[in-house]
Amino acid sequence: MSLPRISIKALGVVTTALATFSAIPAAQAQSPLAGGAPNGTGLAPAVRVSSPIGTYNLQNSSVPPLPHPEAIFDDPWGWNTWLREHGVAILLDTTNEFAGAITSPTKGLGLRQGSSNAGQYGFENDIDWEKLAGIRGFSTHAVFVGRYGIPASRMFGDNLNPSQEIYGGGGNVVVHLVYIYGEETLFNGHLDIAAGRIPLLTDFSSNPLYCNFMNNAFCGNPKASSDNTSHSSYPDSNWAARVRVRPSQYTYIQAGVYFNTMGIYGVKQMRTGFKWNGADINGEAAPVEAGWEPIFGKDKLPGHYKIGGIVDTAPHPDVLYDINDNYWAVTGQARKVHNNSWSAYALADQMIMRHKGNGPDAGITLLGVFYNNSPVTQTRERQYSIGVLDRGFWKSRPLDAWGVNFSYIQVSKKVKTAQEIQQSLGYQTLLNGSFFPQTNGMVIEAMYQIRVWRGITFAPDFQYFIRPGAQQGLKDAATLGFKSHIEIF
């Protein structure tokens, strides 16, 4: 689950001329997001982080522009224009992700060659209360989703890089609350404060560009980011508060506190997302992120560079040792609990060339990720990703895009040791539901995104898994599929 970025994952204002982006319904404003695409609900926070001061107009309101993606029903009978003039934005979209294995799985493990579809419909409401009621700088944001399906990669044994990111966490209900929060923008965008029910990974270690891709290694956040359950991920949220300061036009620093909820992705406590009491809070996560968003040269090539870290006080079971500092896989004793964990990351994207005359997002953008987790409490110790996204290369189809992304996952050596002990003792299923000790694995994704019509995109997708689930004993696998997004209004 992601997420995603996810998704709607993942993630008020997204990009320009768009051609869709993700399973994250999102927003649209004129911002210099390289390779941006029409998105859907839930991308607002990630986009605001990536929108330097001066890239949107605050003259009509102190609130940054409300999301306004390209849609099938853009303004029927003028209702959309009327609502937005009064500070109200309503979005409805749907995303589907289909993948099917084109290779046979490893024999003798009960795996199979199959396909599946995962999807989501999303509803977003954003309100500029300065326009609606004269409350200067104040806005509110809410997203609701319904989800279905599972990733096909589970069928051939990959439990680290789901082939479809838009699954899970939605409680298998018709309406699931993703987030609802208030936001105050002050000093012409130099200070922004948000509080309410917010997913941590919607604001931190996120990038709207990632959800041009479908695999959960990329969309809507680097997958290693959600290894730690105190790092709440779309479509689930925590009570939280976040402050963002922009000391200059192209820099920002943000920090927050997110109150961890036990069982955040389970149906017992979080099935609908509407259980808001604090009885299940068992710790806090405190992220900090600094960003630089330069625009280079006469072609105004945008870049986004982020570094950050997260510490938390939530309880985490040790991956290797029990309460007496012996191997839990041998003793069967309860695992040692650590009331802390940490993560650190660096993310970057940079447009390196523009396709002139094909729109503000037309160009080639490079993407890079490094993520590092505590090896004592997390499965994925490190993740490295590198990719390229090219939008508007074809003059007659300026909103089409192609992209290739590669991700490498390094599993904690302590996880591997625990699994090797289990294997030596004859366990049929190992820690994390694996068949073999986990070491490292890779996934490559290639997609071509087609803007079919206003508000509709369709992206054929190919993925190749090297050591699925970071398991040396599993055959490499490949999938074919597609990702579609329809922004209804």
UniProtKB/TrEMBL annotation:
<keyword id="KW-0732">Signal</keyword>
<dbReference type="Pfam" id="PF04966">
    <property type="entry name" value="OprB"/>
</dbReference>
<comment type="similarity">
    <text>Belongs to the OprB family.</text>
</comment>
<dbReference type="InterPro" id="IPR007049">
    <property type="entry name" value="Carb-sel_porin_OprB"/>
</dbReference>
<dbReference type="InterPro" id="IPR038673">
    <property type="entry name" value="OprB_sf"/>
</dbReference>
<feature type="signal peptide">
    <location>
        <begin position="1"/>
        <end position="29"/>
    </location>
</feature>
<dbReference type="InterPro" id="IPR052932">
    <property type="entry name" value="OprB_Porin"/>
</dbReference>
<protein>
    <submittedName>
        <fullName>Carbohydrate porin</fullName>
    </submittedName>
</protein>
